[in-house]
Design brief:
This protein has 717 residues and is of the alpha+beta class. The chain folds into five domains: 132 residues, HPT domain (Four Helix Bundle (Hemerythrin (Met), subunit A), Up-down Bundle), CATH 1.20.120; 164 residues, ACT domain (Alpha-Beta Plaits); 55 residues; 180 residues, Histidine kinase-like ATPase, C-terminal domain (Heat Shock Protein 90); 137 residues, SH3 Domains (SH3 type barrels). Helices cover 43% and strands 20% of the residues. The strands form five sheets. It has a five-stranded mixed β-sheet with strand order 6-8-9-11-10. A hairpin with a 2-residue loop joins strand 8 and strand 9. Helix 1 packs antiparallel against helix 2.
Length: 717
Amino acid sequence: MLTGDQWQQLLEGFLAESQDLMQRCEESLKELEERPDSDSAINELFRAIHTVKGSAGLLGLDLVVHFVHDFESVLMAVRDGHRNLDDGLIELSYRCCDHLSRLIESAGSGDGADPAPEKSARLMEALRQYLPETERKSVVPRDSDVETLPTGSSADTWHISVRFNEDLFRDGFDPASFVRFLSQIGQITDINLIDSLIPENLNQFDPETCYLGLEVRLYTDAEKRTIEDAFEFIRDTTFIRILPPDSKTDDFLNLLAELPDTRGRLGEILLAVGAITENELNHALDLQASSVTSKKLGECLVEQASAAPEVVSDALKRQQKKTNTNKASDTGGFLRVPARKLDDLINQVGELVVSAAGAQMLANRRQDPELTEVCEEIHQHLEQIRETSLQLRMVEMGEIFNRFHRVVRETSDTLQKQIKLELEGADTELDKSLVDRLYDPLVHMVRNAMDHGLESPDERVAAGKPSEGRVRLGAYHESGMIVIEIEDDGRGINLAKVREKAIAQGIIKAEDDLDDKAIAHLIFHPGLSTAKEVSNLSGRGVGMDSVRQDIEALRGSIDIDNRPGEGCCMKIRLPLTLAIIDGFLVSVSDQFFVIPTDWVTECIEAPQEARQDQPSGYLELRGRALPFVSMKQHFSLPGTPPSRRSLVVIAQGEERAGLLVDELHGEIQTVIKPLGPLFDHLPDIAGGTILGSGQVALTLDVPGILTSVRAMESAIH
């Protein structure tokens, strides 16, 4: 009997697995839209749906199982060539996947009720229209329904041998759940529990180890593959053999040869493999007991024609074996770990980074060569641990990119536009915590590109473009960061209209002289929208502002490459992880700051014109004007600046700026900690960290500082 915690763990595993499976369904349906004859796509779709049904059946989630049954039958008919896959069925499959996701969420919340029973009924009725006439009235069998199978069916008795892996309980499975699942596809006529692996010395008994096996006779008209699917989740770690109804003597001999070695008497072995029935064994035992010459059990079984001589002989050989030689198997594969555990690991590694930095600082202060050498060695190992732990949270961008096939398809139908989605760099990896928070802003931007950016088919044709618009989602690494591009080949941003709206709303003044980039960035201002009317997709002026806030909260930035008449490309730049960063430590007065090294291009001695006590200005660096900001003035720090100061040059794409600081302290690995709601009002600060000395250093929000520099340049011009 499972405890509440064990059940919750199983349920959480089911929900996580189902989320992945539903994503596979989306991908398969998208491929089937483009290639309806793709056998691999329909097989993948069927396997995903069947796996959801199997998992739900093992957990007793009858609501999910009941809904999936007809969906699975329709997909099976398509897979077997009995039903064509037309546009109507693809559309229905999308709707069924959506509703199935809702049912799974409802099961996860602990609510066993159908959140939309009328919709379930409509979808199931629609599915049955695609079933063969003989199956349209069928419903999913329940345990209580499988008393007898229909007369005239092709049902017969199968024999199933199962020897569970010793880690079955530790993996969260219950042997009884597999029996329940088998009872849904047929009638179990005989079942024997094999417990011969239980240690004779009970002091060696481990309550967490499974010593059990099953020998099952199943009367069913199901195919062998359907029976195998009952054990899909333990197939790689469990001994499973299924003998069809027409099995010959050689089949039983082969099964005897393959069965894991077990202790047991001859009759138990023959009974276990299904070579004889329990009645035949009892009859043979009675015959043996009444025999004057003390016949052996094997002779009695052969004499009454219950078992072939060669089967009895092979069983006798196995009976004489004294040791177990179970083969150890390394299944490889994947281990599903809750995200919070990885977060805890990263946090602990982060604290270790801080502690190691403190030890290194102490060693340098004492000038102890042996201690310094040990600290350097610890630092090297810690660097490897850091890289490995961060890699554990890295996932491919395809995890969210593939969801946009549905977004584009539904939005294009709403807008009555022809739109094609292109994906690039889906294998680019990013921290899982970032991926989870990226989906919503990306949805806003993709929908905005389709609604505002792309013209209607008639407008595109009139402009000499193909009637089908294009939206591209791309990702790649650049200078230690990840760049995500959302590009369309539409009309581009109408800068004149944006400026007009901004003036009308008082965001800028009519006399303000803004360049094209500054005007384009006005679309991120709260309340500004160029939509002619409010719709379900846009027009309220909150979408792009929300996008900017979400991206900046991830220590990222957005750049706009606008091409009037040709399209627009939004570029999002993000750090690869939010947890641990490589930073460059500087100080101004008595305050330490950490600048993420991904943004730093060079450090130089500040020229004379940048040493003046002014908040900002320009200087010439290798023939180009470089705007600079004094950190002392920017953050209103006290103290007198030293005679020699340094300039840290930061860059984002082609945009550059200089940060005037008092002193450079070199590279540092650090953990970013949020400052809390009390300090949310602080501009251009992304967080804080504890240095090895115990002092607090503030992490600079470089995109925010570049925004301040951009505002300064606009004010000057």
